[in-house]
Input
Amino acid sequence: MTKVLKCGDLMPGCDFEARGETEQDILQAAAAHAKEVHGLDATPELVEQVQRAIKDE
Output
């Protein structure tokens, strides 16, 4: 089952979505997006928030 992260669930107004077969796939894409677009580093707290926001599609 494909997993999806909708950045807008964490950063209102952002339309970025990451899809992947594994949570690790999404975490990698989300880390790159967070750094490039939002200027955020992948802190343990941010990773935890992202993990909670990942849903099955």
Q: What stands out?
A: The chain is about 45% helix and 20% strand. The radius of gyration is 10 Å. The chain has a mean pLDDT of 96.
